[in-house]
Structures are given as structure tokens and as C-alpha cells.
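User: Show me a protein chain along with its predicted structure.
Assistant: Here is one chain, sequence first, then C-alpha cells.
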Amino acid sequence: MALVDETQLEDGRYRLSEATAGDFIQLLKPRVMSLVVFTGFVGLIAAPGVVNPFVAVTAILCIAVGAGASGALNMWYDADIDAVMTRTKTRPIPSGRVQPGEALVFGLVLSALSVMTLGVFVNWLAGALLAFTIFFYAVVYTMWLKRWTPQNIVIGGAAGAIPPVIGWAAATGAVSLESLVLFAIVFLWTPPHFWALALFKSGDYERAGIPMMPNVAGEASTRRQIFAYTLVVAAVGVLPWPLGYASPGYGLIAALLGLGFVWYAWKVLAMPDGDRDMKPAKALFGYSLLYLFAIFAAYLADSVLARIASAGGA
């Protein structure tokens, strides 16, 4: 006798998954993951001492898997709002390619696997920081802050800012002021980056009922806050140089990148009210991605060159 009859399949009580490997990869939010992995890698390499290659590879893989797990849990919980937003309605769950339960199990298994592997094979401080990051993003941000307060991105940005600290902890077994400066750069970068997106996607957030800053405080207030945060992150980006963590060369590059960020933010601030084109906001969003990658790349290069010079001098 068949375990499931045809009428049960037809009325939707049992559905066979149509998901492909690509759909599950999409659940991991690979574009977001790439930035997370890169900042984590910079924290790992910039940390003092020599890292065992096995430890380094394990740490980066665990950070990547943990970031992906966070993305899958986020998509599972946000499937209802993803379905009404133009930029997310084709994601695997709202499009029906992946069932919600599959995404939930996928995210939970990857979360446990990444945390336990990092704890056992690297160190438990790094493992604990990764566990906190996943919990903060999936529970505190996704389930609470995102739908409750226009400060969701400000507070929730802590989750995306922790990876360089995890990388540092993986290499040294500790957290230092230098790693916290890297955290601060990403943390302060997050509001202008996402609020620029929110400006030209405010209709999406309004339909979904998400209290993003432009929908709550208005576009003019959002533009002012974007500019204020940009001034701060541009200054903090230079901070590793006067603190003695980086060379004047890094300081110059960071200053130039920061000035570019401020320029784009100024163009957003100067936008006329009711501007439907939103070209300055779109340009700022694109530049902000370049800024974060470039400033961490500069910090990585500066750290590696300093280490080579130190080895040569010895």
C-alpha cells in the first residue's frame, strides 16, 4: 500500500522539494558572506604571531559556514516579507523552490556544525563569538529588531561587524583593541550603507511593514543621518594609523577612501526632497561596498608588508 496517496499530493498536504544545490547556496546569501569572510580573514592575518595553516583554513571555513547559516535562518523567518518585496520575492522560499522547514533545518545544522568545529579545532573564544554572531543576527536582529525599530540596522549591524574579531580571536585566543577598531569600522559603515539602499527601496519596505528609517523618519532625516554616520566612519577608518596599528601609507589611503565616502554622502544630503531618481543614493550604496572592501584590503596589505619588513630587519 502506498504511504501517500495521490489526493494527498494534489491538495498540497505533502509536497516534494524542488530545491537544487544552487537554491541552498542562495540561502547562504553568498554576496553577504563574501564580505563577512573577507573581513574575518583580515582580522586573522592582521593578528600578531604566525597562524597554523590548518587553523587558518578551518577558521575561515567556519566563519563562512556560520555566516551562511545566519542567512538561511534569516530567509526562513523573513519568508513572509520577502514574498512582497521586489528585490527578494525570487528567493528560494517565497518562490516555492525550498520549503521553510528545509531552510530551518539547513540553517540550524550549519550553525551547530560551524560553532562546534571552530571551538574544537581552533579555540572556544572564537567559537563562542561565532555562536553569538549567529544568535544576534538570526534572533535579535531578524526576529526582533528588524520589525520593531528603525534603529534595526544600527543595532543589528553588530552581527556583521564581529567577523574580524572572530578572525583575531581564532589567531590569538584573545580580543584586542586593534580588533575592536576593525569592528567599529564595519559597525559604523552599516547604517549609511543600508540606509542608502532603504532610500531607493522604501516602497518595498513600506509594503512589507518594515520600519526602515526613510519610512519612519522621512527621507530628509535619513539623508542627514547618513551624512553624520559617514563623517564618523571616515574618521574611524583612519584611526589605526594614529593608534600605531598601521603605517602612514594606510592612513593616507583610508583618508582618501573616507573623503570619497563623505563626497557621495554629501551628494545624498543635497538631494532635493521627493527625488524619485535616487541616483545619488544608488551611487552611495555602490561606493560603500567598494569602501569596505578597499579599506580592509589596505589594512591587510599594510599588515603583511609590516610583517615582511620586520622579518627582513631581523
